[in-house]
Amino acid sequence: MKTIYTTLLCCCLGMMSLMAQQDKITLVIHGGAGTIRKQDMTPEREAAYHAKMEEALKAGYTILRNGGTSMDAVVETIKILEDSPLFNAGKGAVFTSEGKNELDAALMDGKTLKAGAVAGITTVKNPITAARAVMEHTEHVMLIGQGAEQFAREQNLTIVEPTYFHTPERASQIERIKEKERQNHNNKDQGAIPQDLRDYKFGTVGCVALDQYGNLVAGTSTGGMTNKKYGRVGDTPIIGAGTYADNASCAVSATGHGEFFIRYVVAYDIAALVKYAGKSVSEAGEEVLMRKLVAADGEGGVIILDKHGNLAMPFNSEGMYRGYIKADGKAHTFIYQNE
Ligand code: ASP
User: Which of 38, 212, 237, 322 could anchor a disulfide with 104, C-beta 3.0 to 4.6 Å?
Assistant: First the structure.
């Protein structure tokens, strides 16, 4: 009899804690940071961004609400953003200086600290699925280039022609950037990114999620930076730079000028401030994005989520496509500062 009571009590307590955790389910996304200004937007384009972010948030939320894992939620959410030409990930990725689309992605599981990443791939429709396959089906963390592509084929992931990723918008961006470069070269004003072209440089997508089992996951996917050199890899697939998750601290996904995020180990720095310095996600984000990176002139933003469902979305650029959804299922999406 005593055993039956004890079992029942354990079941009840288990159910109660699961219900309490269910209240904390949260999913946060970004769709890139940069010089995103209201005056450069049409109302239609603005609405398209909000609608796609809402669709992605709701897809992830449905998985979490139905008892799915943060891993599944992050991957499915990112796939929607990768499939949309609005963002610099998957279809609509930016062009390299050689006129190609070379994609990077990473995924990290906060429960096990397992991670998977791919870099410089050109034929995998959804790079985030390749990152997941690396994590789940190899003993490695990162595969690059042709090896990653071969592995993706062996895993039966969806393979496309490299031209699948092309969009006319991105093609005209690279043309304009190259034209500016030529002018700047003639003007002997090399180096700086012209202000009017800065926004075209970024646009990565990312997602962090907390499921009802209390597990955090972070994922990021990108075409990198417009006009990047052959073989350039940014922060996105580098664990600790553009992507990081640890149930003991937080999950982080970054967007911005990748070289700075690599050198300042941004995602891990934020997690370390939460874990070792006892900072909240907002304080840690503020410290790294608004102080360290601003002082270094490193442009970009991050999304951060801890195991209590606290989130922060700091960025030091003019705008960042971003949004979140919590247990009430209401999607909140934003583009500009002070929203
Ligand atoms: N962080 C990405 C990179 O440097 C670019 C971006 O966020 O848009 O590759």
Answer: 237
Residue ranges of alpha helices (H) inside the chain are 2-22, 43-65, 70-83, 127-137, 145-154, 168-186, 258-263, 266-276, 281-285, 294-296
204 lines ligand 1 (CB under 6 A): yes
| Atom from ligand 1 closest to the CA of residue 104 | 9
Cross-strand pairs, 104:
222
Residue type for position 94: V
- pLDDT of 1 higher than 70: no
Q: Can you give the pLDDT at residue 190?
A: 37
What one-character DSSP code corresponds to residue 171?
H
Kindly state the average pLDDT of the residues 71-96.
96
Taking alpha carbons only, the member of 236, 326, 321 closest to residue 49 is 321
CA of 169 from ligand 1 middle (Å) equals 18
C-alpha angle 114/118/123, rounded to 5°?
140
This prediction has a pTM of 0.91
The answer to whether residues 220 and 240 touch, using CB atoms and an 8 Å cutoff, is: no
Bridge partners for 109 per DSSP: 217
pLDDT digits (tens, 9 = 90+) for 108-150: 999 999 999 999 999 999 999 999 999 999 999 999 999 999 9
Query: Which tokens belong to 185?
Result: 């070269």
Which amino acid does the sequence have at 131? Answer: A
Q: Is 210 exposed, middle or buried (0-12, 13-18, 19+ CB in 10 A)?
A: buried
Tokens of 40: 């450069």
